[in-house]
Amino acid sequence: MQLDEVMRTTFSCRSWTDQPVSDEVLHRILDNARFAPNGGNRQGWRVIVVNDTATREAFIPLIKPTTSVYLAQAKAGEGPWNSVIPTAVDIEAAIAADPPFPGVVEMTQAPAVLVFTVDLSVVASFDKDLDRVGVISGASIYPFVWNVLLAARNEGLGGVLTTYLAGQEANVQELLGVPAHHAIAAMVPLGYPTKQLTKLKRKPVESFTTIDRFDGPAFAPVIEAARTGFTVTSNEIVSGGTLALPQVSGIFGAGGQDVSPHLAWSGFPDETKSFVVTCYDPDAPTGSGFWHWNVVDIPASVTELATDAGSQDGANLPTGAFHVKNDAGLPGYLGAAPPPGHGKHRYVFTVHALSVESLGIDGSVTNAIAGFNMFGKVLASAQIVPTYEQQG
């Protein structure tokens, strides 16, 4: 398989066929995974291939306290095992309740079960003196664990990285004969998936990558625009500037008019056959951002959208182009409406140049499906990123 396909299709697999995983395949997976980066090339990992049924069954009562607390905190609306916000859950009561947790038994019965440890005596934990939970040590083990999962995907296998056992580390160390200076890092069940997923949902690059600062402009399309000369301009908005009231939402009660801004573009690749124009808020407190506007199948001969091209009736769109509904379930452009007091939000207006005349979708699909259908078809992208904030 090609590397990009492996990376885009390695999912968290928790259901396997009965087909065994041979020692030859497992050895080949580990042989490829061992080239993972690690601090100082000290390779402080150890892998225990757990074949013994009794040992696997002994994992279950060691996992359950962790998953019981997880479920109780999730039910209470908390982020489970959060190291920043203190829990209001009665931990002892949660453990005593012992609710069933999906997949625990099945994971211990997978065709192959691997336990990963990391030797803390060879790890440079640069954050060990900070007043927060340590994360740096993971850089010396988890790239290797993920390499195992990537290599397994390449062999047609699937697995899932779990860390439940760490909650009972001393007991796990005793069970497996692990020295005290080796931390229990992960348990990974592996096997041949009952179903191979190929459409994984992940946030777009623009939602988590910024330039120069945490609150800086989104990254990816800027780089692509610089490489190709593809640029987008506007008579009404500018990167880093504040959206005017016409581009703010009235529908969502922010005092605006829900009028899409003028956009014009140039310098796109000669092979361009159509355009897609989107507006996305990566800072919306939804866990997946918020799509405010999505126009697809804009003909390659069109290089400009007039002000209010995003009207709900679509009357101002070029012939052949149409709206995919925004995340409010409405066609057309929905203006900015960040929650009062939530800080400054970025509104990423992007023009994508595509290698196809049509995405082959209609206006009823979600923005996620529209984005998936763009995969492999985007020749270049350019953007403008204004901001807007409502005071609390």
Task: Describe the secondary-structure layout.
Blueprint (H helix, E strand, L loop, with lengths): L2 H7 L13 H11 L11 E5 L3 H23 L15 H7 L6 H5 L3 E8 L22 H13 L3 E2 L9 H8 L5 E10 L28 H9 L2 E3 L29 E4 L7 E8 L8 E10 L4 E2 L16 E2 L21 E2 L1 E7 L12 H8 L3 E7 L2 E2 L4
Antiparallel strand pairs: 1-2, 2-4, 3-4, 5-6, 6-9, 7-8, 7-12, 8-10, 11-14, 12-13
Helix pairs in contact: 2-6, 3-4, 3-7
Outline of this structure?
By secondary structure, the chain is of the alpha+beta class. The chain contains 9 helices and 14 strands. Strands 10-8-7-12-13 form a 5-stranded antiparallel beta sheet.
Key terms:
392 residues; NADH Oxidase; Phosphatidylethanolamine-binding Protein; four-stranded antiparallel sheet
Structure write-up:
The mean pLDDT is 93. The longest helix has 23 residues, at 53-75. The chain has helices spanning 3-9, 23-33, 53-75, 91-97, 104-108, 142-154, 169-176, 220-228, 367-374; strands at 45-49, 112-119, 158-159, 182-191, 231-233, 263-266, 274-281, 290-299, 304-305, 322-323, 345-346, 348-354, 378-384, 387-388. It folds into two domains: 3-191, NADH Oxidase; 205-388, Phosphatidylethanolamine-binding Protein, CATH 3.90.280.10. 23% of the residues lie in helices and 18% in strands. It has a five-stranded antiparallel β-sheet with strand order 10-8-7-12-13. It has nine helices and 14 strands. With 392 residues, it is α+β, with helices and mostly antiparallel strands. 34% of the residues are buried. The protein is elongated and about 70 Å long.
